[in-house]
Specification:
The complex is a heterodimer of chains A (431) and B (307). Chain A starts with a helix and ends with a helix. Chain A folds into two domains: 222 residues, Periplasmic binding protein-like II (D-Maltodextrin-Binding Protein, domain 2, 3-Layer(aba) Sandwich); 191 residues, D-Maltodextrin-Binding Protein, domain 2 (3-Layer(aba) Sandwich). In chain A, strands 7, 10, 11, 12, 13 and 15 form a six-stranded mixed β-sheet that branches. Chain A has 17 helices and 15 strands. By secondary structure, chain A is α/β, with parallel strands linked by helices. In chain A, α16 packs antiparallel against α17. Helix content of chain B is 75%, strand content 2%. Chain B has a two-stranded antiparallel sheet with strand order 1-2. In chain B, β1 and β2 form a beta hairpin. In chain B, α4 packs antiparallel against α11. Chain B is flat and about 60 Å long. Chains A and B meet through α1, α3 and α16 of A and α1, α2 and α13 of B.
Chain lengths: 431, 307
């Protein structure tokens, strides 16, 4: 190809390219995430509210029932539900907000502070009165706060219990406590787990103990609290002298030995290890009752309270409801939020299988006076602890999880804890 | 070859009238435009935009942009976790490249014979390439479990169980094994193409001169495969540095940060910790490292051997 031809092609291609580059390269600026109600609806069209939750098909049914009831009581309003699996929920939310298409009302958990700090939640103090909060369990209210303001309200709660294989326990002659005051001590739990662990050759054929959730703050933090430790300072900005306190290290050392020395627990159990008899006891959340009823209706199991050491501590938490600050209908969004979390709270707790966090619902529900729900409600009211509602929660959760998995894998406890505390201090102090 | 084609094209153009030549240039321009536009919009513009973001504190949730200049790059230089992640990625790349080149060449030599039925093996070795990496990583996670298939095999032959993904010493190698298994088939095919392009008479002549199999491999096969090997090494290096999916699915960076690869850290920084500006700066650091690595590879493997 001659020089002239190359110049022709290069020149024109360059010009077109610069035009395209200029068109595509307008500098981005802060964008308020537009919600579905952003644009003015045509006259006569219903007002749209977009609701995001994370759950299952059964939760969708229960939530759609509430939204239908809200729509019936509020003609001219259309509330649509979108549901995403938990593993993808926050990534979906993040990209939706980044793209300016976030929901009006959405479920948010311990990450309330994280989202509030980054401008993705509307402050709710003008809507939430003392009357509103006085009916709610104190432990449930903590997750929705950041910098002294409320950004989300509780939807429901979860609490943990030790699910035990009834047949194995009967065979071993081990009684199962049902009251908080009879909860196993750490040593008792360890002894039972060792008794029920079975091995053949070099392989463990039945684990004595395990957890339903992956190793992380939900599973491990209760042991710190049970030993009188806390992971962070009261202002959630310091981990040193808290996470690496002697009580914390003692708790983590005891917990780690379940995996490394006693070998009664594994960090990677087979799926459904408990209902298939490969695990004698499992530390699981209250909704595990619903899952077992559905998938293993013939399984004979019992539920014991979470263990205790110096004090009782049971991890609690659940989803809250928050409002997108860019919603065009903040008052209507609050009306829906209040409807979901307060007005229909009893119905939601009944239909979803989650625990209620309103004292009035607990007092009036006969279900919560019977086991195992009574046990869970007692744990919630008397022993509930929550994860730290820090504005850097994701970093805390990842760092804590990495530390806990390293300890379960046999790493030196003190070194792992010190490394985690140092990393957390650097991050949290700047938050 | 390229010079010959260029001279032939010039000869064709010279036969056309000036108007005809102009028309030919416009046809070429319009035919090139879609691909060029696609390249600019979907490759170069995002790179420029990412660089722009890297000069800001960009909060992903709120979209707030605050100019910080080179602060993100200064922070990179003093962040030990970034250095560690680069080392992990580099280590993984070295393991991957060596294993894939050696295994890929070995498999290519095996399937290069004209023997009935070898087509099945070529397809079988290539099959993992088309499988979903997310699915394969999930399956291999179970294979590596304490009660998984690999440990069952080890115990059957009298060897002790291994921690694999739970060991800081074995986790990266375990992930590398998945990567090699997944992609070696592709490299096998590329190297097979290179092998089949080597004229057979060169081997015949060498054989007549008394050269043995090893000498023929060392003095004919390898030199003439240098260009193909360069392609395999460069492509495998780039793919290996982009290690993300197996880490995300199997280890989330542990145990003890032994699999905390740089792309996984970029993802976590941008999408879990919402620091997109810092994540963008890390991306450019990765780009610089890969470009430097490729420069060394081109220098080491450049070939002046022609058929």
């Amino acid at each position: 190809m001659g020089i002239r031809a190359r110049s022709f092609l290069a020149g024109r291609t360059l010009v077109v390219s610069m035009v395209l580059l200029g068109a595509a390269c307008s500098p981005p600026g802060p964008t308020a995430p537009a919600a579905s109600g952003g644009a003015a609806a045509p006259a006569g069209a219903p007002t749209q509210l977009k609701v995001w939750i994370s759950g299952t098909a059964e939760l969708d049914t229960a939530m759609n029932k509430i939204l239908s009831q809200f729509q019936a009581e509020n003609p001219g309003v259309s509330a649509t539900l979108e549901d995403y699996p938990f593993a993808q929920y926050y990534e979906k939310l993040t990209t939706a907000f980044a793209g300016g298409s976030g929901p009006d009302v959405y479920w948010i958990d311990i990450r309330t502070a994280e989202f509030a700090k980054r401008g993705a939640l509307l402050p709710l103090d003008k809507y939430v009165s003392d009357d509103w909060t006085s009916d709610v369990l104190p432990v449930a209210l903590k997750e929705g706060m950041w910098n002294g303001k409320r950004y989300s309200v509780p939807m429901h709660e979860l609490a943990n219990g030790i699910f035990v294989n009834k047949a194995l326990f009967a065979q071993a002659g081990i009684p199962v406590p049902h009251d908080l005051k009879d909860a196993w001590t750490w040593d008792q739990l360890r002894q039972i787990a060792m008794k029920l662990t079975e091995r053949a050759g070099g392989t463990t054929t039945r684990w004595g103990f395990g957890s339903q959730r992956d190793i992380g703050d939900w599973v491990v933090l209760p042991y710190l609290f049970q030993n009188g430790a806390t992971p962070l300072s009261p202002d959630f900005k310091t981990a040193s002298r808290y996470l690496d306190s002697s009580q914390s290290i003692e708790a983590l050392t005891w917990w780690g030995k379940l995996f490394t020395e006693d070998k009664v627990a594994t960090a990677s159990p087979a799926p459904d290890a408990f209902p298939t008899g490969n695990m004698a006891m499992i530390d699981a959340v209250s909704t595990y009752v619903i899952a077992l009823q559905r998938q293993y209706p013939n399984l004979a199991y019992d539920i014991a309270p979470a263990p205790r050491n110096k004090q009782c501590a049971v991890m609690t938490g659940g989803f809250n409801v928050g409002i997108n600050p860019a919603t065009a209908q903040p008052d209507l969004a609050w009306k829906l939020t209040d409807y979901m979390s307060r007005v229909k709270h009893a119905q939601w707790a009944e239909d979803s299988g989650y625990l209620p966090d309103r004292k009035s619902v607990m007092a009036n529900g006969s279900k919560y006076q019977e086991q195992p729900w009574k046990l869970f409600m007692d744990e919630l009211a008397q022993c509930g602890v929550s994860r730290p509602p820090t504005s850097e929660y994701s970093f805390f959760a990842d760092t804590f999880q990495a530390m806990a998995k390293d300890i379960a894998g046999g790493a030196d406890v003190k070194a792992s804890v010190t490394k985690a505390a140092t990393a957390l201090d650097a991050r949290l102090s700047a938050s | 070859m390229t010079v010959v084609r260029q001279n032939a094209a010039a000869a064709v153009l010279r036969k056309l009238s000036p108007t005809g030549q102009r028309e030919a240039y416009w046809v070429a321009f319009w035919l090139l435009l879609p691909a060029t536009a696609g390249l600019i919009i979907f490759t170069f513009v995002p790179i420029v935009y990412a660089f722009w973001i890297s000069l800001h504190d960009y909060q992903l949730l709120s979209g707030q942009l605050t100019w910080t200049g080179a602060a993100n790059y200064v922070r990179l230089l003093s962040d030990p976790s970034v250095t560690k992640a680069l080392v992990v990625s580099l280590l993984y790349t070295v393991i991957s490249v060596v294993a894939q080149v050696v295994l890929g060449l070995g498999l290519a030599l095996l399937v290069s014979e004209r023997v009935r039925g070898l087509g099945f093996f070529r397809a079988a070795y290539f099959l993992p390439v088309v499988a979903s990496l997310v699915v394969m990583a999930t399956i291999w996670k179970f294979l590596y479990a304490e009660s998984g298939l690999f440990n069952a095999i080890l115990q059957t032959v009298g060897l002790p169980s291994q921690p694999f993904l739970k060991s800081a010493d074995q986790a990266l190698l375990s992930i590398a094994a998945l990567g090699v298994w997944k992609f070696v088939g592709f490299n096998m095919l590329v190297l097979l193409g290179g092998l089949q392009a080597i004229p057979a008479d060169l081997y015949e002549s060498a054989g007549l001169d008394g050269a043995g199999a090893i000498q023929r491999f060392a003095y004919i096969t390898l030199p003439l495969l240098k260009r193909v090997l360069l392609f395999v090494v460069v492509m495998t290096s780039i793919e290996s540095f982009k290690l993300f999916t197996p880490v995300y699915v199997m280890t989330t960076g542990g145990p003890q940060d032994s699999t905390d690869a740089i792309v996984f850290q970029i993802f976590r920084t941008g999408f879990r910790y919402y620091e997109l500006g810092y994540a963008a700066a890390m991306s450019f650091l990765l780009l610089a490292v890969v470009v430097i690595l490729m420069w060394f590879q081109f220098r080491a493997l450049r070939s002046d051997v022609e058929y």
